[in-house]
Amino acid sequence: DNQLNDNSQSSSFDCQMMQRCLQLASRASGHTSPNPLVGSVVVQAGNIVGEGFHPGAGKPHAEVFALQAAGEQAKGATIYVNLEPCNHYGRTPPCTEALIAAQVAKVVVGMVDPNPLVSGKGIERLRDRGIEVIVGVEEEACRQLNEAFIHRILHQRPFGILKYAMTLDGKIATSTGHSAWVTTPASRHLVHQLRSACDAIIIGGNTVRRDNPQLTTHGTSDRNPLRVVMSRNLDLPEDCQLWHIDQAATIVFTETNNNSQLRNQLEAKGVEVVSLTALTPQSVMKHLYDRELSSILWECGGILAAQAIADGAVQKIMAFIAPKIIGGQAAPSPVGNLGLIKMTDALKLENIKLQTIDSDILIEGYLNIE
Ligand code: AOF
Ligand code: ZN
């Protein structure tokens, strides 16, 4: 249906090279927001002669590094890139002009850039200059890698992931609130890796008071996401792990003029406190969008999770399920009241992926609500 998309000429070699692009792109995972993850490979006579990836916003794009590495051998070569080459002057000059100048013969593109500044214009420009362009190779994998970037650019909001861990009987803690740990070390390790790919983690005041969490990647990565607390009244402990900003930066969102004594204490420790006139999941997401963040991990309890879902701040769910039973009417579950009455009203996840991690199950899926 899209005239730009033409992958009828693509081969399994093309798919292999595109997978390599995705691998290269992933090296900058967690470092590129608001920009996408992009990798590129230059192939001359069946051999890779140059590789590159986009290291972060403000730095050169993937194609530029790949062309640089290929040098003279770029001439007449095929270049692979998981995102359409840009044709605009952003923080950096257009990649299309670099490709034209290098005299590549062919460009294989994973997916059209959803950025309205580019979207199809890069491909058009290359074809106008007589360069063969194939579009839509390994497109699903390309979309998956950049799902946060795509959402951000199409909706002007960061991409929200709600992650939780529950027992087989649907509890995220005991009736006293004790929750260490529901899942196996292997699942928790995966969560630490997931954190390193995200720009921020959000929790509410209840989780701070109850768990005193660290919300870091625990050494699985060279970076930690921004830690975000939503607390209307600022009724938070004076001392907790999140205020140790030598570990990672922390922002507390609150409503205007609350508990100025604690606010002063937090600010003295280097914790940023932001007052919003109305503290809602969307107002926080908007603020984080304006700060150029792309992917947000909701690791909150059920009450805030329900608010985030109802407010359209959650696009993806990652549910870890442990084969354990804790029981108890008062033991909390992952999602609070959504005001839904009939089972037919249930929010249904799409594009479900199931996997086992040690003895746990991870179910991932997408919420299709705005
Ligand atoms: C590419 N290759 O490696 C990336 C692209 O401000 P700039 O100059 O960095 O441009 C950012 C936009 O360029 C970004 O929103 C996306 O549309 C595209 N990113 N394009 O050809 C790359 N990172
Ligand atoms: Zn570019």
Automatic annotation (TrEMBL):
<feature type="binding site">
    <location>
        <position position="165"/>
    </location>
    <ligand>
        <name>NADP(+)</name>
    </ligand>
</feature>
<dbReference type="InterPro" id="IPR002125">
    <property type="entry name" value="CMP_dCMP_dom"/>
</dbReference>
<protein>
    <recommendedName>
        <fullName>Riboflavin biosynthesis protein RibD</fullName>
        <ecNumber>3.5.4.26</ecNumber>
        <ecNumber>1.1.1.193</ecNumber>
    </recommendedName>
</protein>
<comment type="similarity">
    <text>In the N-terminal section; belongs to the cytidine and deoxycytidylate deaminase family.</text>
</comment>
<dbReference type="InterPro" id="IPR024072">
    <property type="entry name" value="DHFR-like_dom_sf"/>
</dbReference>
<feature type="binding site">
    <location>
        <position position="179"/>
    </location>
    <ligand>
        <name>substrate</name>
    </ligand>
</feature>
<feature type="binding site">
    <location>
        <position position="61"/>
    </location>
    <ligand>
        <name>Zn(2+)</name>
    </ligand>
</feature>
<dbReference type="GO" id="GO:0008270">
    <property type="term" value="F:zinc ion binding"/>
</dbReference>
<feature type="binding site">
    <location>
        <position position="299"/>
    </location>
    <ligand>
        <name>substrate</name>
    </ligand>
</feature>
<dbReference type="InterPro" id="IPR016193">
    <property type="entry name" value="Cytidine_deaminase-like"/>
</dbReference>
<feature type="binding site">
    <location>
        <position position="211"/>
    </location>
    <ligand>
        <name>NADP(+)</name>
    </ligand>
</feature>
<feature type="binding site">
    <location>
        <position position="95"/>
    </location>
    <ligand>
        <name>Zn(2+)</name>
    </ligand>
</feature>
<dbReference type="InterPro" id="IPR002734">
    <property type="entry name" value="RibDG_C"/>
</dbReference>
<feature type="binding site">
    <location>
        <position position="215"/>
    </location>
    <ligand>
        <name>substrate</name>
    </ligand>
</feature>
<dbReference type="InterPro" id="IPR050765">
    <property type="entry name" value="Riboflavin_Biosynth_HTPR"/>
</dbReference>
<dbReference type="InterPro" id="IPR016192">
    <property type="entry name" value="APOBEC/CMP_deaminase_Zn-bd"/>
</dbReference>
<comment type="function">
    <text>Converts 2,5-diamino-6-(ribosylamino)-4(3h)-pyrimidinone 5'-phosphate into 5-amino-6-(ribosylamino)-2,4(1h,3h)-pyrimidinedione 5'-phosphate.</text>
</comment>
<comment type="pathway">
    <text>Cofactor biosynthesis; riboflavin biosynthesis; 5-amino-6-(D-ribitylamino)uracil from GTP: step 3/4.</text>
</comment>
<keyword id="KW-0521">NADP</keyword>
<dbReference type="GO" id="GO:0008703">
    <property type="term" value="F:5-amino-6-(5-phosphoribosylamino)uracil reductase activity"/>
</dbReference>
<keyword id="KW-0378">Hydrolase</keyword>
<dbReference type="InterPro" id="IPR004794">
    <property type="entry name" value="Eubact_RibD"/>
</dbReference>
<feature type="binding site">
    <location>
        <position position="195"/>
    </location>
    <ligand>
        <name>substrate</name>
    </ligand>
</feature>
<dbReference type="Pfam" id="PF00383">
    <property type="entry name" value="dCMP_cyt_deam_1"/>
</dbReference>
<comment type="pathway">
    <text>Cofactor biosynthesis; riboflavin biosynthesis; 5-amino-6-(D-ribitylamino)uracil from GTP: step 2/4.</text>
</comment>
<keyword id="KW-0560">Oxidoreductase</keyword>
<feature type="binding site">
    <location>
        <position position="181"/>
    </location>
    <ligand>
        <name>NADP(+)</name>
    </ligand>
</feature>
<feature type="binding site">
    <location>
        <position position="86"/>
    </location>
    <ligand>
        <name>Zn(2+)</name>
    </ligand>
</feature>
<dbReference type="InterPro" id="IPR011549">
    <property type="entry name" value="RibD_C"/>
</dbReference>
<feature type="domain" description="CMP/dCMP-type deaminase">
    <location>
        <begin position="12"/>
        <end position="133"/>
    </location>
</feature>
<comment type="similarity">
    <text>In the C-terminal section; belongs to the HTP reductase family.</text>
</comment>
<dbReference type="GO" id="GO:0050661">
    <property type="term" value="F:NADP binding"/>
</dbReference>
<dbReference type="GO" id="GO:0008835">
    <property type="term" value="F:diaminohydroxyphosphoribosylaminopyrimidine deaminase activity"/>
</dbReference>
<feature type="active site" description="Proton donor">
    <location>
        <position position="63"/>
    </location>
</feature>
<keyword id="KW-0511">Multifunctional enzyme</keyword>
<dbReference type="GO" id="GO:0009231">
    <property type="term" value="P:riboflavin biosynthetic process"/>
</dbReference>
<keyword id="KW-0862">Zinc</keyword>
<keyword id="KW-0686">Riboflavin biosynthesis</keyword>
<feature type="binding site">
    <location>
        <position position="207"/>
    </location>
    <ligand>
        <name>NADP(+)</name>
    </ligand>
</feature>
<dbReference type="Pfam" id="PF01872">
    <property type="entry name" value="RibD_C"/>
</dbReference>
<keyword id="KW-0479">Metal-binding</keyword>
